[in-house]
Each structure stands twice: as structure tokens, then as C-alpha cells.
Design brief:
Length: about 425
Amino acid sequence: MNTALDATDYAAAQDAACPLGHFRDEFWLPQHEGQPQTYFVGNSLGLQPKAAREYVEEVLHKWAHEAVEGHFTGQGQWMRYHELVREGLAEIVGARPSEVVAMNSLTANLHLMMASFYTPTDTRNAILIEKGSFPSDRYAVASQIRFHGFSPDTCLIEVEPDLPGHLFSDAAIENAIREHGARLALVLWPGVQYLTGQAFDLSRITALAHEVGARAGFDLAHAAGNLALNLHDSGADFAVWCHYKYLNSGPGAVAGCFVHERHARSECPRFAGWWGNDPAIRFQMGPDFNPTPGADGWQLSNPPVLALAPLRAAAEQFQRAGMKNLREKSRRLTGYLQALIDTHLADAIEILTPREEARRGAQLSLRVKAGRAAGRSLFAYLQNNGVLGDWREPDVIRIAPAPLYNNHQDVLRFAQTTREWMDAQ
């Protein structure tokens, strides 16, 4: 690996040899002063696939020319439109097709899952999460606890990070689950921690939760489309995620949900809606709810077809690329980014994200050693020079090379621009 800051030939050669390099041409790249912006914010909003417009316009054309009959005609019929993304999503998250469904938004799905899998009793009523979780998750968990008549002061257990950079050791997670096991109704954990970029062993956490008699659920907002997940084999009871980050399906995109097949015909409590009713009897308009087996049985309303259309384009891209191939390219890009920082930028910048490949995805979370003001200065300098990451309070710059459209030249440009800022200080 050539980590010289003038090694443009090396970076270009790596990109030319990359078997996934052509996918970059399938995206609209934002412009900065007439040149493509160097975009590292796929962990917040992925770029637009060019095919998304085609699929949206297909729905609009069908609506204009067929109106209500569009529900029943052609491959893209609206009655079954959500099924067009099922196989792709199952491959992306390592699930069986019947275990996944695209519906609602992430936090709405989290509430629906907790309605079914957080069933507290007087003695087992606690939910365990990580300290510093994404606010929406904490709000949802606290509100669910209150809804059931308990207090978050006693029933919301937050595991403190025990390693530098606000990272969690495996022992800290295991000890917390074992310590509180008799009280735990649910362990809710991220696949990737949004601020630090730390990735977690879902299978291990699930096994620990089940061992103490709790359910295990995961927020995969920063893991879906980023890590090579194996949800079915992990044994997780449920998982939720969004599609607007690494899965490039547009702002506020329809979210995803996983329910393990052992719950496919479960009689656990749930909030019911017409679209979750068995399609074989749905149009009989009967008074009784008979849920569709599998994740589809948690649907409430008919799918928002216009919003699903970009996800259809994105899921097809992931199927063509393959998660194994994407993960391998991601390792190379993030490893190159780490090496450039270690070689040229370490005097000013520290990496918070774990250095081991297995404990991170595409994102490196960075902190400027001189403090928050210096961090904001670097962030502004990068942005003003066409290199866009994102800022998370209190002092973290997140840089996430997304393997579908980022490349070695992007990573090198980040390092070069950061070095320019350092030299000007």
C-alpha cells in the first residue's frame, strides 16, 4: 500500500483495477465548483442511483395511464410492489425472504417491534441499551417503558462504554446482561454505534440475551448495507433499519424490518392493520385479523409505492454487486484511510473507531486533538474545498467511504486536504 500523499498514480491504479468501480457511474455525484464533490456522508444520506428516477417515473406513468388498475397489472403492480425488494433485502441483511419487509420508518418499526417483543412483567421489565445511543432509540425505549406503567429511572439500563474513545468491550456488554439478566425483558443494541462506528457481534449478544431469558433486537441503521450481516443465523428476535444511508433510497425512505422465522406464526401481541392480514382472505373484509405468516404480518397499511421505487433500484444494485464484494472493497478503502491518517495526519487527528476490521464498517470517526474549535475549523475547510463528511456533537467528524461509489482517489483527496489544513495552522 502506497501511503504517500502524492501517490495519485497508485490510487488511480487501485480504482482502475476494482471490479466494482463501474458502480460509481450509476450515481449522481454532487458538484463543487464544477467538479464532483468528494462525498463521505453515505452513513447519513446515500447518493441517488440514476435508476431511481426510472422506477419512480414508471410508477407515475402507471398511475397516469391506468389509475386504480395499476394495482393489478404488470410486474410492477402495486398490490405486490413491496415483494419486488424482498429478495434483495434478504440478501443484504442475511435473512430468509419471509423474514424481511420494507415498511414505515425506522422508529415506527421499532415501536411496532417493541409492542410485540417487549412484554414486561412486574419482575422482568427492563430494557438494556448502550449509553450514548442514538436519541430516537432512547426516546422510543423510554416511552415504551412509560406506556407499560414503569419508570425509565429504574427500567432503562444504559451500559457505559469502558474503553477509550467511548468504545465497548465484549466483557462490558456481557457483564451488564448477566448482572441485570433476571430483570431484562429486552436487549436492544446497535449493529454499528452511530457516533464511534464500532460494530458489534449480533450473534453473541443475542445468545447472551436469550441465555438470561430476554429478547434480543437490533437497530441496524448504520449496519444494513455496510456490514455482511447474518440476521437469520444470529437468532435475533427482530431488527429494524433505514434505507436512506448506505442503501441509497432517498431522504426519509421506507425502512426495513426483520422478524425471525420462529415468530412467523407467533401469537405475541402486535398492533394490527389491514395490510398485515393474510392476503388470501384480506379482501373478504372480515372482522378478525389473521396475520400473514412472517414479517409481512406486521404491516399496517398498503405500501407507499412511490417511496418504494428508489429502494427497488438500490436493492437491485446491491444484488448485482454482492455484499461479500462490497464488504471486501470497504475494508480496502477504510484500511487505506486509516493508513493515510496514521502516516500523515496522526499529529492532529485521532481515530475513535476500532482499528480491527471485524469491529467496524465503512465509517471512521475522527477527533481533532486540539479540541472542538479546531475540529470545526477542519470540518469547514474540508467542506469549502469539496470534501464532505459530517459533524456529530460534541467533537466528532465522521468519514465513511461507501464502496458502491467512493474510491481510493476520494480517500487520498481527504488526506491531502486535511494535510493542507494542518500545514496552514
